[in-house]
Write a structure and sequence with these properties.
3 helices; alpha+beta; 5 strands; single chain; Thiol Ester Dehydrase, Chain A; five-stranded antiparallel sheet; elongated
Length: about 140
């Protein structure tokens, strides 16, 4: 399937809520049982604002906006981010993560585009240089 896109075009947005239960499920699935993701006391003792979401959980959640737009995950060629800020997850309550996927570069010759993700919580970007290379 060929897609026509323009630089600056928003190809997807999403608001995701993250709860402590989500972190427990992710810890079990990923094997990352670091106590900063479930133990409030420990997280604060190491200088964090409290329990934080796994970086890879945040990364994976963010790219789903692009995967859903593509329709075929095989059209995602490359993905990378820099982890810039943690996502604190309160208890009780939830963290709200806002995701916007915007076309940054189109290479018609290669049939690819770079999609930049803006990922933030409470107005603060939590992923830097979140870039997805996709096949058009």
């Amino acid at each position: 399937m060929s897609r026509s896109v323009e630089v600056g075009q928003v190809v997807g947005t999403r608001t995701v809520t993250v709860t402590r239960a989500d972190l427990v499920h992710y810890a079990g699935a990923s094997g990352d049982r670091n106590p900063i993701h479930w133990n409030e006391r420990f997280a604060r003792e190491v200088g964090l604002p409290g329990v934080i979401a796994h970086g890879m959980f945040t990364m994976g959640t963010a790219v789903n906006v692009v995967v859903d737009w593509l329709g075929d995950p095989g059209d995602l060629l490359d993905y990378g981010v820099r982890f810039t800020r943690p996502v604190p997850v309160p208890d009780p309550g939830e963290a709200v993560v806002e995701i916007v996927a915007t076309v940054a570069v189109v290479d018609p010759e290669a049939g690819t585009a770079r999609i930049d993700l803006t990922v933030s919580t409470e107005g603060t970007k939590v992923l830097g240089r979140a870039q997805v290379l996709v096949r058009l």
